Amino acid sequence: MEHTETLRALGLFDARVPRYTSYPTAAAFSPDTGASFQRHALEQLDPSEPVSVYMHIPFCERLCWFCACHTQGTKTLGPVESYIEALEAELEMVRAIIPNGLKMGRLHWGGGTPTILPPELIHRLSESIRRVFPPAQEFEFSVEIDPTMVDRAKIEALASEGMNRASIGIQDFDPEVQKAIGRLQPFETTRACVEDLRAAGIASLNTDLVYGLPHQSLARIEDTIEKVLTFTPDRVALFGYAHVPWVSKRQKLIDEAALPDDLSRYHLATRAGELFVAAGLTAIGIDHFARPDDTLTASLEAGRLRRNFQGYTTDTCSTLIGLGASSISRFSEGYVQNAPATAAYQQRIATGVFPSARGYQLSPEDQLRARAIEELMCRFAVDLDDLSQEFGTDAQKLLPCLTEMATRFAPFARLTGKRIAIAPEGRPLTRMIASVFDQHVPEGVRYSRAS
Q: Domain Radical SAM core: where (predicted)?
């Protein structure tokens, strides 16, 4: 805590900056880039290179107040079944134009709550995906799991379809915190879910936690982490709560007076990180932790760690194909996002057109800056001579950015030759330092807190 005042002076507790799971961020996307760009990018894919596939299931039986994802509530399966039909139609549209022989190296189901699907819809959707994207030899299938919306039959269905990594949403186990965010999830329910996943042979278990929630305290987050560690998770993601009620109206149900201030958020994150490292996990980037024998740790040590819309990953596929409402696809040439609203997405599918609503085409300089930001977020360092191997002499254009970083964020950002590195005690500033590379900050956009 001895560096707290220096971090404060550098603006950590005042700044709002992107999380940089992409560059540029979705705030820079434009409707000028859409279906025609998406079609061209899909047609030009190299069938020898596996792709990642992301499937968005936007439905929840309950809408947690803290969540800012594109979701909608439902108590019946009718809307879900109609949505699955739209997904199948989108898959067929994609299959009609991608090159023959294309395979998927990664598949991720996110939401919403993918485990709202009963076993029969799990099998049906999985079969539809595999008809278009056969799995590559080294295939990873991950699913976001809500322990209150899953049972043994659903887990067995997912396992039979190849799920080998599960990501369990926990947030916090304290009853008062759970009540304040509209997500009641008993520890016993979560433990039963973990036991069912392990019994089904799921080799990799992720747990997602959130700091900065209402009524959180050091004692409460310590108790939550103690409980989480009894699950022996392979990976842990520790995200800072982003209070953005102007984006997610349901967050207006959260009492802002009960939210910890920026300094308290910093202490919560710091203490949580200390506990995970003390338990033998390796710190990965700014907000992940993994067992020493996990592939995420191996990727970090080998210099292959990547960052995408799900956070830190071992996924090295250059293409991500997003399916479903609000999903974002990433191609070498840029990004494209499907219509966010479920109704708008389904309407576009029904008319036989690609559901993309907006996107962004990358310039060569965008690609350079994106790579530099990813290097900084993954390894806390950027070496322009290393970047020159990929981008040639253009990489040297970023030298003024490195000089600015070293000046603005001294003593934590240290410039040696053409290499900038962030000292361990300055890593809470990483997103702020990375923003120096960012040339796309639209006016009026309010990002999440840096702390």
A: 45-279
Digit-coded pLDDT (tens) for 399-422: 999 999 999 999 999 999 999 999
257, 217 in Cβ contact below 8 A?
no
User: Which band of pLDDT confidence, cut at 50, 70 and 90, is reported for residue 46?
Assistant: very high
Q: Which amino acid is at 437?
A: F
Closest-CA residue to 80 (of 61, 100, 67) = 61
The burial of 400, by beta-carbon neighbours within 10 Å (0-12 exposed, 13-18 middle, 19 or more buried), is given as exposed
Q: How far apart are the first and last CA of the chain?
A: 14
How far is Cα of residue 302 from the mean position of the Cα atoms in its chain?
22
Distance CA 38, CA 45 (A): 11
Between strands 381-383 and 419-422, the pairing is antiparallel
Q: Give 12's Cβ-side CA count (13 Å radius).
A: 23
Instruction: Say if residues 265 and 212 touch (Cβ distance below 8 Å).
Output: yes
Q: What is the pLDDT of residues 241-252, one digit of tens each?
A: 988 888 888 888
Tell me if 112 sits within 8 A of 60, measured CB to CB.
yes
Helix, strand, coil percent values for the chain (each to nearest 5): 45, 20, 35
